[in-house]
Structure formats: structure tokens, C-alpha cells
Amino acid sequence: MSRSRSVTPASRRDFLARAAGAAGIAALAVLPYSAAAATPADHPLAAAPGTGAAPGRDPAFDRLWPLVQRELDRLGPAIPLHDRVGVADYSLPSDQPRFYLLDVAAATASSYLVAHGRGSDPDHSGRVQRFSNDFGSYASSEGAYRTGDLYVGKHGRSMRLAGLDETNDNAEPRAIVIHKAWYVSHGILGRLGKLGRSEGCFVFAEDEADLVMEALGPDRLLLAGRFGA
Description:
The two termini are 31 Å apart. It is built from four helices and eight strands; from the N terminus they run H-H-E-E-E-E-E-E-H-E-H-E. Helices cover 21% and strands 21% of the residues. It is α+β, with helices and mostly antiparallel strands.
């Protein structure tokens, strides 16, 4: 079952500071999760008010950056590396490349196909209907994840994930990871008009999964939810 916790901002900051000083990133706080975001107006990557994206900038990056910046600020030392970030935008259907790999220094975003959990889409509509953090739900979970180590499992090369929020803190015991599978491909889209479904994992095409995992590497942010288009 999903657990409910209350963490005050002050105690969270104190805990993260002690964790970072005493044990690096070994200890992580479980934080309240919210999809609301705002970018400070004086941030160097913020677009000017009322102008939309800056000329020549990547519009996908500009759309997602305020959310990413807010999450990096919220999570603090729980996410040591801020140069690249992954965002799974499940407001989009599975026939769209809805996983974005953001390069913060370059202010660009590349996008990839990614599957969602079958428990999030029981009718196989191609759209996420619900999120769940429960054991046995086979659903995708929303929230912030810290990327972990690469390993070789039953799906080949894979990447571990640690859930940092109340909405996804069962990620490790549920074995929610990044991996590749045959049911994520343009060929599947051509036949079905949608991707296959995972058991809650972030599943990529066989020819793109390694690229995504290598670009993310450990100790970076992966954010999942419905973020609008």
C-alpha cells in the first residue's frame, strides 16, 4: 500500500543537509510531490515575461524547464548532478515521443518513445488513465526519481531508479527501472497505433534505451507525471 508522510520544509532541509554531509547521497528524503512549477524571473534560462520562448530556443526545453528547475530546487542535494534531466510527460499518448532528455547547458531537449504501465491503462487505450505506487498495481508512478546504477537483468542492460516522493517511494521494492523491450518501436506503432505496456517501468525502444541510459547516468533527475503539452 502507498504510505502517507508529512515532512515540513525545515526538517526536510535539515535532513538533506545531514545526509549530504554524513553519507553523500546514500540517505534520501521522501518529499511531498506537486506538479505546479514556477521559474524565477531572474534565472538565466527563464524566457522574458509575455514573450514565450526566447528566439532560437528549443520550445520543448522552454516548456519543461520551469518544472525541472522547481524540482531541482525542491530536491536539493538528493539530486547531485543537474547537467541532464529526463522527463516522462504522460499527458501525451504512447504514440508520441513523450520522454524528453534535457541538456541544461545547451537548453535543448531530445525526445523518445516510452511505454507506461498496464495498470495505468487497463483498456490499452494508449493513454495513462491513473498512477499508482501500490505493489501489484503494474502502474506507472508519478513523481521525482534519482537515476541509479546500470546492471544487466532479464531485459538486458537496465538502470535502477529510486523514488523520492510519497507517490513513487515504492519504486525500488517494486523493481521500477529503465529497460528496453520489443513492444516499444515504430514498427509496433505502425501495426497497433500505440505502444505495448510495461509493468510500471520506463521502457524504451531497443535501439534507443542505451542512449537514454548512458546520457542520464546515475545521480540525475527523472521526473514523471502529466505536464500538459
